[in-house]
């Protein structure tokens, strides 16, 4: 009986951890859409704004301003409207956590 209990415990632990892993991967997928302008993991090439290590709350505010039209932009107002407020907060947290 004990032989079967360890695999069951491991399977149950894996099933519980899977949704959390999927969440992390989804945020990385959303953040990857920013790489064209802001660089991989938010480390931009010269001339573009880097996002890595920036303050999360400031990024969220900027994104909300783009989304609402308060802050003028060429592309960011369109891009930000494609995400919910919660998704923008998660993307901002992802970039804030990256090393500069």
UniProtKB/TrEMBL annotation:
Residues 21-99 form the Cytochrome c domain. Gene3D superfamilies: Cytochrome c-like domain. InterPro entries: Cyt_c-like_dom, Cyt_c-like_dom_sf, Cytochrome_c_Oxidase_Subunit. Residues 1-22 form the signal peptide. SUPFAM superfamilies: Cytochrome c. Keywords: Electron transport, Heme, Iron, Metal-binding, Signal, Transport. Pfam families: Cytochrome_CBB3 (PF13442). This is C-type cytochrome. It comes from Hydrogenophaga atypica.
């Amino acid at each position: 009986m004990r032989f079967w209990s360890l695999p069951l415990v491991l399977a149950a632990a894996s099933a519980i951890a899977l949704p959390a892993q999927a969440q992390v991967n989804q945020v990385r997928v959303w953040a990857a859409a920013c790489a064209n302008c802001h660089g991989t993991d938010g480390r931009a090439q010269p001339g573009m704004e880097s996002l890595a290590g920036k303050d999360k709350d400031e990024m969220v505010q900027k994104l909300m301003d783009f989304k609402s039209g308060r802050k003028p932009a060429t592309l960011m107002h369109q891009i930000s409207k494609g995400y919910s407020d919660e998704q923008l907060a998660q993307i901002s947290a992802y970039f804030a956590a990256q090393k500069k």
